[in-house]
């Protein structure tokens, strides 16, 4: 399903240090979100193959984490501040604070990892993948993981229960409760199961289904309540213990009471799929990540959007180029690239002095091996060709989001703008 969905329209980024509500920096849909226990740190994962650590206080990027070959579908923060990311490449990366490379890599899954979870004592990491398995990894040792097998298809969620048991959900429409030893208890539902969240402080699970319904399930596997959320599949669920947030492919986020799924309100965004949700501990704030590459902030008690209205404001990095047709085309690039040094961290390298520069030649940027293997010098002709046929055709193996510019006049305007703006 991930492969079939197109990358979203790119948007402009808030300059680090500016107090803005939205978090902008990814060059593709935001697939994963996690907030630290301190309520100040955030890690996100995207279809653009990167993870980003953020400061929630300043709404600014702290570090772009580049490692995975393919989309970053899952992310969590450990109690000591380390980030953990899981990717389409089937690998899990554990990142020390501020490190440019993972301090530990966990391998074994043979399909995309789509869910990560941490045990209450912080000693075990759970992962769920589309290879039909979940795995439980000891964090304090190099011992091999415990492999949970039984689902007949994609495993879409994994969580640790207060009882110490482990629960998994799958596209095979089953919920499985795994004891420390022995066979799993299997509960079959009327629909494939897409998203799973533990309701903190309770013995309840919130489960989103392909039928557009949210189900409140006890730790014994019985359904306690259910509610219709959307005519499309529910693909993201989160809970802060008092409320449950659920979202689907049409972009609206339902807020319901955690005790009985009584509806409280609906948050209406831009109408694009919402892939990830995370509550900010100790507050009424909810973060949402979607197909437009933006992480939005909401007050769930009032339903108000905390959008600061960056468009057209003084922090718009293209404000000085208002009315320039080439700058208008370039807006589809500004989420990942800067024009000048000092404009902050983004997912791609700066374009400063791009013309005449050999491909993959900036010393402070970690290019993929595939991108580094090409023999290209960036000129007006090569830049135009890149967007005429698309990055994946022109530079095979690239992690750059796929996008083309069909009109020759638009390509010419972009090239002319880059020649002026990146000198």
UniProtKB/TrEMBL annotation:
Residue span(s) of domain Cytochrome c: 321-422
Xref: InterPro entries: Cyt_c-like_dom, Cyt_c-like_dom_sf, WD40/YVTN_repeat-like_dom_sf, WD40_repeat_dom_sf, WD40_rpt
PANTHER family according to UniProt: F-BOX AND WD REPEAT DOMAIN CONTAINING 7, WD40 REPEAT PROTEIN
PROSITE patterns: CYTC, WD_REPEATS_2, WD_REPEATS_REGION
Signal peptide feature range: 1-20
Protein's UniProt name: Cytochrome c domain-containing protein
Record keywords: Heme, Iron, Metal-binding, Repeat, Signal, WD repeat
WD repeat placement: 23-64, 65-105, 106-147, 148-188, 267-308
């Amino acid at each position: 399903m991930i492969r079939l969905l197109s990358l979203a329209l790119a948007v402009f980024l808030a300059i680090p240090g500016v107090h803005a509500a939205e978090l902008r920096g990814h060059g593709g849909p935001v697939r994963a979100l996690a907030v630290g226990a301190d309520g100040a740190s955030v890690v996100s994962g995207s279809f653009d193959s990167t993870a980003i650590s953020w400061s929630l206080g300043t709404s600014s990027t702290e570090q772009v984490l580049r490692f995975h070959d393919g989309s970053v579908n899952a992310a969590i923060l450990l109690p000591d501040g380390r980030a953990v990311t899981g990717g389409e490449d089937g690998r899990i990366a554990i990142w020390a604070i501020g490190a440019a490379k993972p301090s530990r890599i966990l391998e074994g899954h043979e399909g995309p990892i789509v869910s990560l979870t941490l045990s209450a004592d912080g000693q075990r990491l759970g992962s769920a993948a589309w290879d039909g398995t979940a795995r439980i990894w000891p964090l304090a040792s190099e011992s091999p993981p415990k492999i949970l097998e039984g689902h007949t298809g994609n495993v879409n969620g994994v969580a640790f229960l207060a009882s110490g048991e482990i629960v998994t959900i799958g596209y095979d429409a089953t919920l499985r409760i795994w004891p420390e030893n022995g066979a799993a208890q299997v509960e079959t539902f009327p629909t494939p199961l897409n998203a799973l969240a533990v309701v903190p402080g309770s013995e309840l699970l919130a489960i989103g289904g392909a039928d557009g319904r949210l189900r409140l399930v006890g730790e014994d596997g019985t359904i306690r309540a259910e509610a219709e959320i959307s005519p499309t599949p529910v693909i993201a669920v989160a809970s802060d213990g008092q409320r449950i947030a659920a979202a689907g492919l049409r972009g609206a986020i339902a807020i319901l009471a955690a005790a009985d799924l009584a509806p409280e309100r609906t948050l209406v965004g831009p109408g694009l799929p919402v892939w990830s949700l995370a509550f900010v501990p100790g507050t009424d704030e909810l973060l949402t990540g979607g197909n437009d590459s933006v992480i939005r902030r909401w007050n769930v008690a009032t339903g108000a959007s905390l959008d600061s209205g960056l468009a057209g404001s003084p922090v718009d990095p293209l404000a000085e180029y208002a009315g320039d047709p080439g700058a208008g085309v370039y807006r589809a690039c500004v989420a990942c690239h800067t024009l000048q040094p000092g404009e902050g961290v983004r997912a791609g390298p700066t374009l400063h002095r791009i013309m005449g520069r050999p491909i993959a030649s900036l010393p402070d940027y970690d290019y993929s091996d595939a991108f580094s293997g090409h023999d290209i010098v960036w000129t007006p002709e090569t830049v135009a060709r890149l967007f005429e046929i698309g990055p994946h055709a022109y530079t095979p193996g690239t992690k750059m989001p796929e996008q083309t510019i069909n009109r020759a006049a638009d390509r010419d305007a972009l090239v002319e703008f880059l020649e002026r703006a990146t000198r």
